[in-house]
Amino acid sequence: MNGFDLDPEWWWLIGAAILGIAEILMPGVFLIWLAAAAAVTGFAALLGIPLAFQFGLFALLSIAAVTFGRRWYADHPVASSDPLLNDRAARLVGETVLVVTAIEGGQGRVKVGDGVWNARGLETPAGAHVRVTGTKSGCLIVEPIAALPPSN
């Protein structure tokens, strides 16, 4: 018997452990659900179900576990010290930006840092400063502000 002559249930349980460790090392809240599916499949394999059914069971359990996980995290969001970390547009709310393409008919373009974003708002000529008040589908919602004092 060499080191690779393990029964299938041990491979499933070893796979579950590896996936669990990978989730700890690279958190993404995804691998843990696959680890749970592999662990349950490993325990089911102890009952002597054929290998083909083990793979089918793992596939079904993986789908069910990931679906459950997505719903659970949607209902129980994880608190963050920076909730806007991955929402670039929302992070711009309150910022003052420069209109580079006049806002006409409710649409134009504004300069944000070294990039240019689509914007919606009241009629505003190019060169005017506006404040970002919100976002919608990656488009900035802006409103005109009083003239800014010259910078020193």
Structure in words:
41% of the residues lie in helices and 23% in strands. The mean pLDDT is 87. The protein is built from four helices and five strands, in the order ααααβββββ. The protein folds into two domains: 8-75, no CATH class; 88-144, Nucleic acid-binding proteins (OB fold (Dihydrolipoamide Acetyltransferase, E2P), Beta Barrel), CATH 2.40.50. The longest helix has 25 residues, at 51-75. Strands 1-2-3-5-4 form a five-stranded mixed beta barrel. By secondary structure, it is an alpha+beta fold. The chain crosses the membrane at residues 12-36, 42-66. It is a multi-pass membrane protein. InterPro entries: Membrane_assoc_protease, NA-bd_OB-fold, NfeD-like_C.
**Tally of extended strands?**
5
Radius of gyration: 27 Å
Distance between the termini: 80 Å
Number of domains: 2
Report the total helices. 4
For the sheet with most strands, the description reads:
5 strands, mixed, barrel
**Helix-strand makeup class:** alpha+beta
Nearest-integer average pLDDT: 87
How large is the share of residues in beta strands? 15-25%
Helix content: 40-55%
SSE run:
HHHHEEEEE
Shape: rod-shaped
**Low-confidence sequence ranges:** none
- Give, in spatial order, the strands making up the sheet with the most strands: 1-2-3-5-4
